[in-house]
Amino acid sequence: LPYVPRVPPVALLGKITATTFALERPCCVFDWHTNASDTVWLVVAFANASATFRNPPSQADVPPYKQLPTTHSYMTLETVAAAYTCPAPSPAVLRVGDDTACKDQGRQDPCNGPLPSPGPYRVKFLLMGCHGPKAETRWSDPILLRRALSPSTIDPMPTRRGSDVVVIASLLASLGTVLATAVLGALGAKVWSSLCQRDLGTSTFTHRSYRTHHIPPALPQPPPPGCGCSPPGLGCFTL
After folding, report:
1. Position 30 in a domain
2. Could you read off the pLDDT of 28-87 as tens digits, one per residue?
3. Cα–Cα distance between 49 and 45 in angstroms, integer?
4. How many domains does the chain have?
5. Predicted local distance difference test score (pLDDT) of residue 116
6. Which among 30, 157, 192, 204 is least buried, having the fewest CB atoms inside 10 angstroms?
7. In sequence order, which residues have a C-beta less than 8 Å from that of residue 94 and are 6 or more positions away?
């Protein structure tokens, strides 16, 4: 069949991860080749091994997921052909490698387990009937998964910036310091002025003018008793 599987071109959350990728559903592709008992399989193979893949003669010979490291291919996502007829039901995408439970349990039925390496991979859809393969699509373009970075490869030091960027950053930092100093100085002066005015307001008082009472000049004191005054030229004598 001329249909080529592909990753959806639209933005999609988790479209390609380190262990999974999404595919468009092959809707309306097998309508003229199916009957009620047919199933559609997805063949997943390493890109360099897709040319040597041979379709299994029966469903009993379908290569399982656990043989991917040795056979470099497997088949998964067994689906009744009626699920891909027109109009197609939702969801509109298939997710390859999305089932982590079947890998841990080691089941023998078709497993859609996580992909073990970035690949690249190529996929195709295969229509299987009771007597073997009936139709198939073309192989997809190579699909490369994301690579997880090892912690040892992460540089803990920030990337060195260009000299121009460093100069601009230094100037901006200096300007910010000057502005901060000016603002703090203005605020300090305002606060100090407010405190001074508050102190003056509480310590000053109004001087009232007043006049003292009139105090007459001191009168001469009388001589002490027993002392009289002699005529001029004579001293004091005792009575």
Report:
1. yes
2. 899 888 888 899 999 999 999 999 999 999 988 999 999 999 999 999 999 999 889 887
3. 6
4. 1
5. 92
6. 157
7. 22, 23, 24, 25, 42, 77
**Full residue range of the structural domain in which residue 96 is found:** 21-149
**Percentage of the chain with pLDDT > 90?**
42
Task: Examine residue 72 and state whether it is found in any structural domain, yes or no.
Answer: yes
Please give the angle made by the CA atoms of 119, 124 and 130, to the nearest 5 degrees: 135
Q: How far is CA 161 from CA 40, 144, 153, 170, 173, in A?
A: 55, 32, 20, 12, 16
- Range of lowest pLDDT (9-13, 81-85, 164-168): 164-168
For the cut 80, the answer to whether the pLDDT of residue 209 exceeds it is no
With 0-12 / 13-18 / 19 or more C-beta atoms within 10 angstroms meaning exposed / middle / buried, residue 2 is: exposed
Element (H, E) at 110: none
Domain assignment present for residue 69? The answer is: yes
Helix intervals (H) in the chain: 68-71, 101-105, 163-203
Greatest C-alpha distance within the chain: 177
SS3 of 127-145: EEECCEEEEECCCCCCECC
Instruction: Examine residue 32 and state whether it is found in any structural domain, yes or no.
Output: yes
